[in-house]
Amino acid sequence: MIQTPDSDTVTEQVRVRAAARYLPDESDPDLASFLFMYRITIANEGTREVKLLSRHWVIRDAFNERSDVRGPGVVGEYPVLAPGERYEYKSTCKLRTHWGTMEGSYQFEETETGRLLTVEIGRFFLVPPAKVQLG
Hints:
CATH superfamily: ApaG domain
CATH architecture: Sandwich
CATH topology: Immunoglobulin-like
Number of helices: 0
Shape: elongated
Strand content: over 45%
CATH class: Mainly Beta
Largest sheet: 5 strands, antiparallel
Distance between the termini: 33 Å
Number of domains: 1
Helix content: under 10%
């Protein structure tokens, strides 16, 4: 299997695409501060309406130090997706190393039945372009 820096995962008929970009103007390698922006696109490929309730991120830096981030919704929202609808948001992640990874899951609810769904967020990489000079 070829590993790419982005991810595209389908769980419970919900597709999650993730991609990240290094923000050099907001990073300071001399102070071990590396900021990344990531974009998430969620698409409901099923036949029932779903509502995003919460998130769980697993973030690892280049030293394999793990941090878990849990919380309600995403960027202050609780998107509801009818069949065929998509939702996109952007956020940031700060690392103390020049690269790392993110992965995790979202908790969704089928609005009609109340059934809870755990939707995986596949691993994606937080890495500067090869041409960026670090430290």
